[in-house]
Amino acid sequence: MRKQIGYILLAVASLGVVTSLPQTVLATNNSTFSQTINAGVLSTDVLDATGATVASPSVAMSAKSLSFVCQSGGAASTGVFGANAQRITVLNPGGANNGWTLTLGATAGASATWVSGGNSFDYNDATASGCTDGGDVDLRPGQLTVDPSAGTLTADCDSCTTANVTKGSSTAYVQGTADSVTLLNASATSDDIWKGYLTGATLSQTIPAETPAGAYTMNMTLTATAL
Amino acid sequence: MPRQTTYSILLAGIIIVGGLLSLAVTPVGAVESYGIGAVPAHPSEDNPRTKSIFVYEAKTGSVTQDAVKLINNTAEEHIVKVYAVDSQHSSDGAFACAQAVDEKKDVGSWLVLEQNEVTLPPHGNQEVSFKVTVPPNAETGEHNGCIAIEDVRAPTQQVGNGIVLSFRSALRVAVTVPGKIQANLTFTNVLINDDSGKLVVSPVVKNTGNVSVDASVRSSLTTVFGNVVAESKGTFVVLNKDESRFNFNFERPFWGGWYSLQTEATYAILKEHPGASDMKQTARSETRSLFIAPNPTALFVYISSLVAIASVTIYLIWQRRRFKLMHQATVAYDIKPGDTLQALAEQAGINWRMLAKLNRLKPPYSLRSGQTLRIPKRRPKTADKSSKNQA
User: 0.80 cut: is pTM over it?
Assistant: First the structure.
């Protein structure tokens, strides 16, 4: 009986040895292994702390009360672009070797507005820092400022670093002049295979005086561009 | 069948099945890739840049045909929109792509794709052909646009107020119309932000030429002795007729102090441009002097050292002054047999070392008869006390 148990143990041990050996493909001469491995492509997404795609990424702005004066500067509505649970992530598995940029622009372009039902106000009116309506077609002012430099850039792969990837400067949208804000700018000397994320960039939106109450939203597009 | 043989067969069977199982569950050379994007379908062997973006030299009126390979590196099927747009100058002079709704005036209007919506299977890819037609009135020089790829997914529902996000990736399309090609970089500013504990140096460079360049920009901090204490650099695309700003984060020098900031940009017209030469040019900014506040620990060391130096100086001055006063108030005394330095010092009411120092005596401080010493006069109070004691 002991001998039998010994044989069984030997068999189990052999199985363990085989499974722990470095992987080798045991194939006969006429076997064909076929698989397609796509090229890595530059892409961007919002991932949570576990690395999973966030299904409905959005950026909440602080609520403000209806005011008879323009709410700007320290009184503006603020938000955090890239909370820890919504990391602005760039994935470049070798698709952009000459550098890349990550930029943020309004999906509807320069004429976009914050909308709540039938009400709206602007995000790129520079007149009086967004407190006075300029010469554009919309009727209510407002200006959104994005400050990527206030955020933290983190490399998220074993062999890449944040070297040669710079955060953009604090920028306010200005119609026709600053329609896009640079969040990240990776130089050609940055790591060719890179994954990382930006957290903690700040947003500040001037709320025009007497803006009707409502939950205002605006669509924005995050673009990763190979250069 | 003998029992031993049976066990051997059983053993062999287990080993074989185990081995096969281990092959089945382990992926062979699996590569983890992410996202949805695109690459040029037919990159040129001569230009490695074309593996990432589209680069063309095209005369006015010419038509160039090419294709973009759309790639789905996810495990789900995706329907993607693919469209051409003009390029846009983003903040800091970076390259960006205009939005799909923006009016197309440049390469975005020259480029026509065969398809604008494609269904990509999981881990699949598909080529989409396109034509670039350069209009007869196109200006000489570089024109930029983008091919953008955007996943068509249900729009995000934003609860409350805020920004609803969409995502896309894009490839630059650079079309150079041949003619007189030139690039000229000049520094227009070097901004220094030393607030909030961070030192950010932002060189601003302008390209007045008609083609973009890859500029190797380097900023360095040097001490008054010329040694570099911090450096930051990178190679960036500087678009034609544009101003670019690069934000370099510097390690703040621990000891602080005055430093010189030098910035230079080395560039050459990209070789894919017609008429380009390999000759590199360098633009330099004016040298800036700046004071950097020391690290709090360094500041503590500085203050401690200053206090220590001041204390020692004050002590030395005090000692010197005391010595001088003592020297002035001395009388000559001829040494008699039996006199000791200790006894004479006690009589004078001072330390024997001070007496030795006053007379520049060296160890072992022996006195000889007939030798003259300068001995401080006893203070009247001390003298009174002494006479009282004697009485």
Answer: no
